[in-house]
Every structure is written in structure tokens, then in C-alpha cells.
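Technical note accompanying the year-one report. For the benefit of new consortium partners, we illustrate the data format agreed upon in the data management plan: each record pairs a sequence with a C-alpha cell string. No post-processing was applied to the example shown here.
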Amino acid sequence: MTYFPPSPTRAFPAFLIDPSICGNKYVHPARRVERYEPWNGGGSQTNKLFERRGAAGGGSRPNGWLEYARANPSPRPATLQDRKPVGGRGARCYRRRCVKVFGSVPNLHRRYSSSNIAIMNNPTIVVAGATGNLGGRIARALIERGASVRALVRHGAVQEKPKRLRELGVTIAAVDLSNVSEVASACSSASCVVSALAGLRDVIVEKQTALLDATIKAGVPRFIPSDYSIDFTKFPPGENRNLDLRREFHKRLDNTSISATTVFNGAFAEMLTGQMPMILFKLNRVVYWGNADQRMDFTTIDDTASFTASAALDPSTPRFLRIAGDQLSARELTVVVSEVTGKKFRLLRAGGLGMLGALIRVARALASGEKDLYPAWQGMQYMRNMFDGRAKLEPLDNDRYADIRWTTARDVLAARKVI
């Protein structure tokens, strides 16, 4: 049976990868792992599963340790050379235990083996969009890391949101984001400006350009734009409207001398609980387009916020940082959701990527929604970009900051409230 959305206008709810809504990834921090011992479980069709025993320091077993742990049960510290990805049918790691998953173990390319990153002490970080979902969490994560946070809030903003920020210890600066001089004054003495603005061209391009100009005018050395998405540098313009707006802003950003860092986090993992039309809980199905074994990147909002906060405090960040709390294909997601719910979920192929592209064109023609932030066809564009594999994030920078413990899709689904 083939799944067809009930109508073009309701085919896919607004669902992912923008700062105003709720990714997580699959890679785990490469900690010093001292020992793994065989776990009495698994079966003949899977590799041996291992459970961490008595290793100090918390954290998770990095991907690719199956071969090492099976052949080297001794408690010696691991080296980078030991961490070789393992192919074939096997297991994948979730926090402090391994979970049986059919499919090959992903080859997750890491850029850093350990966290020797210098973090600034007592800096002032300016956050634009702090009254939003992601922006508020970034502000909180910065406060937790000892930073002084100044939130740019528009004049006349609902007082409840700034009040909650003040309770966290955030300083509020009411500004007109279109007024460069006014915003520059609010950004003075800051070490980095973080944008978590959400909107269409008037916000992502125009107001964010004014914010960038104000940042430069104030002499702030670093800027983090409001991207928080799949890697749109890997596919051409015209395939995703909201990401094209970010691409347009990048042209302006890259023509300046400011040190900028973009955070790519894939899809927000919270979308898997219902807003992203992939797991059909009532039908016990996992819907996919094209290839059921194409892995996709997922990161929770909190993990994205924590990583962004650390990046804002890190003066050595490169132009792009890529993170993923979990990396799962539709086939692997079917196994995970079945184990979490105790129900048997099955794959349901909605069609090929060509069919999805045709549906996008029809949906956009019948119900344009050009002035809406997340019309139905916008979510479909995100899904096409994820299933065709070009938006895949690599190499990953999950190991850059030692304090982050990545949340998996399993964790998100286990915490889902059943309605």
C-alpha cells in the first residue's frame, strides 16, 4: 500500500529545522573509554553487544568500538587509531548502553578527538531572538556557562517573555532591529552576537543584515547567524525556500570581515514525536521517500542550544560547525520506535523522490502560502532534502566541547507523552 497525503495543503505540517521550532544527532563524545566487557545479550544475527562497566568520567561509548571492545577486553585507554568504524550488521550505541539495530554501523566522521578548546571567561554575549524557543534556550545555556547575556527585544514585546529572561539573569535591551545605530549601542562591549531570529525575507535577510551591520559598527568580533538547519551549502538554490533565504544572507555575511560561524544541526529531533510526518504512531508505520537506508541527522533543541552557547564562548570556531545527536535511517528508526513503544512498527514507502518533488510543485501551486513561515510544501522541501542524502552532515564536530551529552532519538521517543 502506498501512502498519499490526504491533500496538498495538509500533506506535511510545518515541521523542522528553523530556530523558532524545536535536532539531534547520533554521534557521541569521544571520551577516554577505559573498558568494555561483553554483555550477555544479542543474538546470532547481530554483533556482540557491549555495556560499559566501571569506566570513569561518564559519557558514552563512541561509535566504531565494537571491533576494538570485542578484540581488546583489557582496560587500557583507547587511542584514536583504535576508533575504526565497523561495517556490517550490528549494533548502535545509545548513551551508556548498546541497542540492537539492524543495518550497518554508520561511519561517523569526527573532526576532534578531544576537547582542548579555550573558552572565554566572563564574556558578554548578545542574543537576538532570545524570546523564541531556541533563542531562550541559548540564553539559558550561556548563563549556565558563566556568560553575561544581553537579549535584544523589540519595543512593545509581550512582557512575560522578557520577564522570564530577567529571572534567568539576562539583561534586556529593547531595540528596533531595523535601526543600526540603536542596535549597535546595545551590542557594545560584547564578544559575540548570536542570532536566533525566525521569519521570512524581511527578518532572515533584511533585519538580520541590520543586526550584522550593527554588530560590525559596535566592533564585536564574532557573529553566529540564524541557520540551525541541514547543510544547505550542499545543494543548489531553488530547492528549499527558507534555506534559500539563509543562503542569500550568507552572501552578505561573507562579504564582511567579521568572524562568522554557522551551526548545522540537521532536523530538530523533537519533530519525530509527531510534527514531522514520518512516524505514524496510530498506524504503527514509519513513512519514507526513496531509500529506507538513507541516514538523516537529528538534534534536540536543547543540545543545539548548548552547542551554540559553547561556540559563542569559543573564539577559535571555524566558519561551519556540524553536529548531530543521532543519525538514523527510516529502517533503523522503525526498530527504535518499536522497542520504545512495545509495538511492531513497519516501513511504509510513500514513493520516490521524483514523486515527492511533483507533490511539492502541486502543493505550492494550489496553496502557495508564500507569506507563511511553514506552509505544507515547505516541510515537504525539507523532507526531500533529507531523504536525498545531500544534506548529510559530515564531518561532525560533536566532540568539540566536552560538557555536552548528546540526546538520541530513542531518548526523545521514550519521553514522548502518549495522548
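Partners are asked to follow this layout when depositing records. The first helix runs from residue 66 to 71.
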